[in-house]
Amino acid sequence: xxxxxxxxxxxxGEAVAVYKPQGDGRVLLVCEHASRRLxxxxxxxGLSAEALNSHIAWDPGALAVAELMADALDSTLISQRFSRxxxxxxRPPESPxxxxxxxxxxxxxxxxxxxxxxxFARTAALYVPFHDRIASEVASRRARGMAPVVVTIHSxxxxxxxxxxxxxxxxxxxxxxxxxxxMLAAVSGNTSYRVERNEPYGPADGVTHSLRLHALPFxxxxxxxxxxxxxIADAAGQQRAADYLTGSIQEAxxxxxx
Length: 258
Hints:
Layout: E1 16-19, E2 27-31, H1 49-53, H2 62-73, E3 76-80, E4 102-103, E5 106-107, H3 116-143, E6 149-156, E7 159-160, E8 163-164, E9 169-172, H4 178-187, E10 195-197, H5 209-214, E11 222-228, H6 235-256
Parallel strand pairs: 2-3, 2-6, 6-11, 9-10
Antiparallel strand pairs: 1-3, 4-5, 7-8, 9-11
């Protein structure tokens, strides 16, 4: 059992990674599902190596794309260092999917029948530091008179529950659609990718938690980006997607003004 005192070993390191902490760009990038790594003391959660390498454990390619975008935009990037199977940092603590007992077709034995203390331990060790770091970055920028643009980067599997997904890039938003609208306008007519609004997920699926925490309360421009992971499986695909998304964001921000 994982308790508050031993969920992370010293050798595991920090729960949160920060890339380009001195980045001075307007955009603040976030990658909640950057890693498939499990804390040493979590073992394998009762899962096979195949499951732990699959999309249920992380968003393949998302961190690589986010880092390329951070370089291009001179932006700080905050990412989670552990698998979403231990705690999905894009879900609130009360959500069953924060520590899922089932993910797509896989049961997760190590998440079955967690006690309130165990759920609290994971929340305290993983969720709280991650969102505290984002909140601190937002607060610091706002204190300097800057209005950060919050952009979260994700990837999704091309086949889910046996169904093929034709969408290639999803531009997702919650109740504030300003940046999403401007990005969709910017890519209108561009056939590089099949781009759709609030696909393959939308706010009704509970996927905009980070945006709701860090952007909506302050009126900050924000968007969640989903990239089909077969398109970013190698360095060339990652660079192509990063260039496309960086250009789309820059054009959208230009349309929206300061």
